[in-house]
Write a structure and sequence with these properties.
Helix 2 packs antiparallel against helix 3 (43-79) and helix 6 packs antiparallel against helix 8. This protein is mainly alpha-helical and 337 residues long. It has 2 domains: 3-125 and 258-334, no CATH class; 134-244, no CATH class. It is 74% helix and 2% strand.
Length: 337
């Protein structure tokens, strides 16, 4: 097989689609971000997210390496059209390219195995979130502790915040709830309290507020509306909790399925990448065998138009690989955990 036939063979090479890789990685990172919002205290999820970011960082570096490798390929095909290039010069370059292709085959297979293992390791915890009593609790506080009792209201509010803030996961309380009690100072409050109150904490808070109301009004029992709200805090909130858990579970399931599907897309890309480098290796080997049959001191020069299409194609892919490196590094930074 002569060099022209080998050039024609190289024209059939299919480069892996970097756009598909980038889209799959971004979708997975966004899904992880969404899952963390649903399960912001899930340590296993954070660990998986960080592991994926590490894999993406490795792929970014591999894309940068591929950009350099393709630059060498472009250099080889340019050599074929230059003056004073001997067979020995071409052989020396091809042997380097062959070693590069062999190493890339190994690294691509390794990367593929890592992503497959990562896909198998995804066993996100579908734990049920603890009940959130705060919505009902605030409604009760507004009914039991009147805005006309600023001192008692302030004390009870301070007590709830301090007791509940020790329990871990927090979220911002709706400002309009606070504003209904502290109209003038609402914007000065930046309160965060837990979304996990045990039944004992709830009972204690309710009892305390009920006692405050009774003491102030010199009554032995609180209003019917307050009692109804207390009852709803325990019973009615269970229905809301079940609905929230069901909604969160469905969202988690969709995100997990998307991650799994996109990981398969990445695996398919890496399979194509391995095939690409295998094809490169075989082509270089054929070039080497063809050149070895020639005198090493003979000059070889092909017409530029014969290699122009290949050079243009490899240059474009070289630039795409460089852009892929930058994009993946940006993803790792943007979606860092």
């Amino acid at each position: 097989m002569d060099l022209i036939d080998l050039l024609n063979q190289y024209g059939t090479v299919i480069f892996p689609n970097l756009g598909i890789l980038q889209k799959a990685i971004k979708d997975i990172l966004e899904s992880f971000q969404h899952l963390r919002k649903i399960n912001d205290d899930d340590k296993q999820l954070v660990k998986l997210n960080r592991k994926f970011n590490e894999l993406v960082d490795v792929r970014a570096k591999e894309s940068l390496k591929m950009s350099g490798d393709l630059e060498r390929v472009v250099g080889y095909f340019k050599m074929l059209t230059e003056d004073d290039i001997t067979v020995s010069d071409l052989l020396e370059t091809l042997l380097v390219l062959k070693d590069v292709a062999e190493n890339r085959i190994i690294s691509s297979k390794k990367s593929e195995e890592e992503f497959v293992d990562f896909r198998k390791s995804i066993q996100l915890i579908n734990g049920i979130q603890p009940p959130n009593f705060l919505s009902a609790l605030w409604q009760i506080s507004l009914e039991v502790i009147r805005p006309g009792i600023p001192i008692l209201s302030t004390f009870v509010l301070h007590f709830i915040v301090r007791k509940s803030s020790r329990l871990g996961k927090t979220f911002n309380l709706l400002p309009e709830k606070i504003g209904s009690i502290f109209e003038e100072n609402a914007q000065q409050f930046n309160l965060s309290i837990t979304n996990h109150l045990s039944s004992s904490h709830l009972s204690f808070c309710l009892a305390f507020m009920g006692f405050g109301y009774c003491f102030y009004n010199r009554k032995k029992e609180i209003s019917k509306k307050a009692k109804d709200l207390m009852y709803a805090a325990v019973k009615g909130n269970r229905l809301t909790t079940r609905k929230n858990v069901a909604d969160n579970k469905e969202e988690r399931k969709k995100s997990e399925e998307k991650i799994s599907t996109k990981l398969q897309v990445i695996s398919t890309y890496l399979e194509t990448l391995t095939q690409f480098w295998t094809q490169q290796f075989n082509i270089y080997e054929l070039h080497i065998n063809a050149l070895k049959s020639m005198d090493g001191n003979v000059n070889i020069r092909l017409q530029k138009n014969l290699a122009a299409g290949i050079i243009e194609k490899c240059t474009e892919e070289k630039n795409n690989s460089q852009e892929c490196y930058l994009m993946l590094k940006d993803y790792v930074y943007e979606y860092s955990v």
